[in-house]
Design goal:
Structural class: alpha+beta
Distance between the termini: 50 Å
Number of helices: 6
Number of domains: 3
Strand content: 25-35%
Length: 327
């Protein structure tokens, strides 16, 4: 097949994929379970099937022209095979059922892995089922009494709710003479969190000792000594240690670690909305990783203070849906 013919064929199928769902309302979200039936299954001869048809036409034309009964019988047998093949290809999709779609939340810029779960509503085994999402292909067999999973990655390009485009399910089983397909557009969706800021800004500290993320500036517990730098207070110079070494050394004091802090949207200055949410997302992840109690302050909404997995998910969900229409 020439390159021009391949391009023309690819362009034709792109138009088919784009137009056919609109003709049958199958582009609309549908509630699960979704069962395929004769109203939503398309079937056409495959490329191999068209070549097969041309061959049969040549055999039958020659048999009729020369009135050759043997050749006529030889030509009619493949015709019956083609009819049976068309019926079996259709039945391979008919009553195939999508029962569940699941995807875990992801961060913006990643790919959400949507898992489509299929079973056979009538108990028949299905062979050679192909799922296509954009340019990604996955192949499964759905055996009687089993539920099979088909995973497709969906790029998460923006925060908020992510719903996958229609998934095309197709088959050429058993002989490859016909191509049958249908579209599935479920109500499934997953949440896309803002992309965490990188490199990360340090977590905000609240100067209130022992209460809300405080540090104690009067704590004189010595942690270590370091070389003197311009601008250091003379009161922090360790004179005895400096006399022993002959170099100016400065005391570094142990500062108690904050136990709680506030992640405030309005306190972030000089960034646009998405970059503010990106920074808050990073702070939520860092505070959760270090076991810090924190409160997330968004305009019109305060979450916490609290800590743990559930609190982290509540904060990330609020950040993902902040200032989005319909959230």
């Amino acid at each position: 097949m020439s390159a021009a013919l391949r391009r023309a064929r690819a362009a034709f199928w792109q138009q088919v994929d784009r137009r056919l769902p609109n003709l049958t309302r199958r582009h609309r979200f549908e509630a699960l379970p979704i069962a395929l039936n004769q109203r939503r299954i398309y079937i056409v001869p495959s490329g191999f099937g068209l070549m097969f048809a041309v061959m049969l036409f040549a055999i039958l034309a020659g048999a009729l022209n020369y009135n050759n009964n043997g050749a006529l019988l030889f030509g009619l047998l493949p015709v019956s095979l083609a009819v049976v093949s068309m019926h079996q290809t259709f039945r391979n999709l008919n009553q195939l059922q999508l029962v569940q779609v699941h995807a875990d939340p992801v961060f913006c810029g990643e790919s959400a892995l949507f898992s489509f779960h299929f079973n056979a509503a009538d108990g028949r085994t299905r062979f050679g089922i192909t799922g296509r999402y954009l340019d990604t292909y996955r192949h499964i067999d759905v055996r009687s009494g089993e539920t099979r999973r088909l995973d497709v990655p969906v790029p998460a390009l923006a925060r908020g709710w992510l719903s996958p485009a229609p998934l095309r399910i197709s088959t050429v089983w058993p002989f490859g003479l016909f191509f049958a397909w249908s579209y599935l557009h479920s109500q499934a969706r997953t949440l896309v969190y803002p992309r965490p800021e990188s490199p990360a800004a340090p977590l905000p500290a609240v100067p209130d000792a022992g209460k809300l993320g405080g540090t104690d500036p009067g704590d004189d517990d010595l942690r270590s000594l370091r070389d003197y730098a311009a601008g250091d207070s003379p009161r922090m110079i360790a004179w005895k240690a400096s006399a022993r070494t002959g170099e100016l050394l400065v005391r570094q004091l142990e500062v108690p670690r904050a136990k709680e802090t506030i992640l405030d949207f309005d306190a972030i200055i000089g960034l646009d909305l998405e970059r503010k949410l990106s920074r808050l997302t990073r702070w939520v992840l860092d505070a959760d990783r270090t076991g810090l109690r924190y409160r997330l302050d968004l305009p019109g909404q305060k979450i916490g203070p609290d800590q743990g997995h559930t609190h982290r998910l509540r904060c990330l969900k609020a950040l993902a849906q902040y200032a989005l229409a319909g959230s």
